[in-house]
Amino acid sequence: MPPESSLSKRIKRHVIGRRRNYFAATSPGFEQLCLNELQALPLFVQQASVLPGGFEFKGRLQDCYLANLNLRSANRILMRIQTIKAANFNQLQKELSDIPWELYLRAEQYPKIHVTTRHCRLYHKEALSERFLSSIADRMAKIEFTDECEELSSLKQKIYVRGLDDRFTLSIDSSGDNLYKRGIKRHFGPAPLRETMAAAALMLAGYTGKEPLIDPMCGSGTLSLEAALIAKKMPPGWFREFAFMNWPSFRPKRWEYLKRQSEKEFLTLKKPLIWASDVNPSACSQLKECVAKFSLSDAINVAHRNFFDLVPADMTDQIGLVAINPPYGRRIGSRRESNQLFKAVCNRLRQHYKGWKFAVVVPDKKLANYIPSQSRAYPFAHGGLKPMLMIGRMS
């Protein structure tokens, strides 16, 4: 075995072996939900605290791996690199020259820089980005890379720079593509609900995967697919790659071990308890193909049916959860038509789903009063609109 290089030793000491600060980004309003997810995992995190748009925690590198693999409501996980103070470009250049980029980037990696600033004398994003890239290139040119590098995946590495009051926090993105991209769906309906929001809706509604779930306006099937992963105890990141796989600190054998440990928890269900249906036959056909491809047929039953013809007693004699993301806005015509459809959905719920828990996307807060039960409201952003997620039980 060849002797270990000085750089490898530094990576082990400073990145692999040390607890570092991380930031998990979430949709606003869902920070505590995601932190609860993290704290339920078998991790060794410390000092976790909620911040606007996410939460910070301290952990080891494998905690970062597991957070990416398992968190259903997180958007991405960032590893903090350093915080520097600079009020002019000369000061910035001096501070940047001391950052050991070789611990975080491979020799051939040239990351994309995302810059946001507030109350900073240095605020021009393009100029800042150029300085960061130039500093990285200068530093990497001086480093002797002797270890063999595995082929990089196609995921582009990102560095996030957040400036506030002349202090710049530098973070490296461990996720790559936004975590709502599960690697499952290749089909998309109009204005689909993001997977992270669908998972949040299910968790807020208390869904465990052991009770019936009806998704009667399934569209591309986001709610049903997320429910199936929960029911089968499959991590949301099981079918995808992550940016940390390109890091010089990445240890493939350790990653494969963590995945094997996770796979031991997977369940094969005796019969489906998730009923997905839609009035659009093409949407149902595409969802069926997706369900079969990813071995989720034991969890989801897909049928081409109209919500207004469905009676839950025809599918199950148990009470469970009905989850609905109804079409709204330009998807179905005028606002008046959208409102009329939503009111009809609420009437149908009132008539046929007594005692059922519900998770319903409400396109406009003015329509919230039509939900026929006491409920909790969670506003969120979706495609330029500001709908609400309503969670409750039908009385």
Explain what this protein looks like in three dimensions.
39% of the residues are buried. This protein has helices spanning 6-16, 31-40, 61-70, 89-97, 125-141, 195-204, 222-231, 252-263, 281-293, 335-352; strands spanning 20-26, 46-51, 54-59, 74-85, 112-118, 158-164, 167-173, 213-215, 274-278, 300-304, 321-324, 357-362, 375-379, 388-393. Strand 9 (274-278), helix 9 (281-293) and strand 10 (300-304) form a beta-alpha-beta unit. Helix 4 (89-97) packs parallel to helix 5 (125-141) and helix 6 (195-204) packs across helix 7. The strands form two sheets. It has a seven-stranded mixed sheet with strand order 2-3-1-4-7-6-5. The chain has ten helices and 14 strands. The mean pLDDT is 92. It folds into two domains: 6-173, VC0802-like; 195-232 and 267-393, 3-Layer(aba) Sandwich (Rossmann fold), CATH 3.40.50.150. It has 395 residues and is α/β, with parallel strands linked by helices.
A few lines on this structure:
This protein is an alpha/beta fold. Helix content is about 30%, strand content about 20%.
Keywords, please?
single chain, 395 residues, alpha/beta, Rossmann fold, 2 domains, seven-stranded mixed sheet, 10 helices, 14 strands, 22% strand
The CATH topology of the largest domain comes to: VC0802-like
How many domains is the backbone divided into?
2
Shape: elongated
The unreliable regions are none
What class do helices, strands and sheet pairing give? alpha/beta
Strand order of the largest sheet: 2-3-1-4-7-6-5
Layout of helices and strands, plus pairs?
Blueprint: H1 6-16, E1 20-26, H2 31-40, E2 46-51, E3 54-59, H3 61-70, E4 74-85, H4 89-97, E5 112-118, H5 125-141, E6 158-164, E7 167-173, H6 195-204, E8 213-215, H7 222-231, H8 252-263, E9 274-278, H9 281-293, E10 300-304, E11 321-324, H10 335-352, E12 357-362, E13 375-379, E14 388-393
Parallel strand pairs: 5-6, 8-9, 8-11, 9-10, 11-12
Antiparallel strand pairs: 1-3, 1-4, 2-3, 4-7, 6-7, 12-14, 13-14
